[in-house]
Design brief:
By secondary structure, this protein is an all-alpha fold. It is built from 5 helices and no strands.
């Protein structure tokens, strides 16, 4: 059901339009449905979907999500050593043999995953360096 109180986007100033696009970027980045955002912001669904397809809007959404992910990884990294120590302590000191076994399996499994990731990251960096050397462009750098 369309809202009758839409703002005509052609009547918006460029500053107003950009402000609304920025709000749309924020909404999309956190998973808000475009149609819901359009209704709440009195922008036609058609306009909101057209804006959402704009490569600059898509890039801004991606950048906002990467920033949130980087922050989350930072928070988790800060707690990683404490969690690893707690699991290692359980692996050594738990009274229950099944708890010790589970803790040691967790350490083993986590180390395998981490080393696979580190190897993959190293290989990707090498590939990026080769591509950068061939193209003369740092466009692939991480």
């Amino acid at each position: 059901m369309e809202c009758r109180h839409r703002v005509r986007t052609s009547a918006m100033s460029e500053g107003q339009r950009q402000n609304r696009k920025n709000k749309l970027v924020a909404a999309i980045a956190v998973g808000k449905p475009i149609a819901v955002w359009a209704r709440e912001n009195k922008v036609s669904r058609r306009t909101a979907y057209r804006w959402a397809k704009d490569p600059k809007v898509k890039a801004a959404v991606d950048a906002r999500r990467r920033k949130a992910l980087d922050h989350s990884v930072g928070v988790l990294t800060g707690r990683l050593t404490r969690a690893a120590n707690a699991i290692a302590d359980l692996g050594e000191a738990a009274e229950s043999e099944s708890v010790r076994l589970s803790a040691n399996k967790a350490v083993f499994s986590t180390m395998i995953s981490a080393s696979k990731f580190a190897l993959l990251e190293k290989r990707m960096t090498e590939i990026e360096e080769i591509l950068n050397a061939r193209t003369g462009s740092p466009g692939f750098a991480g």
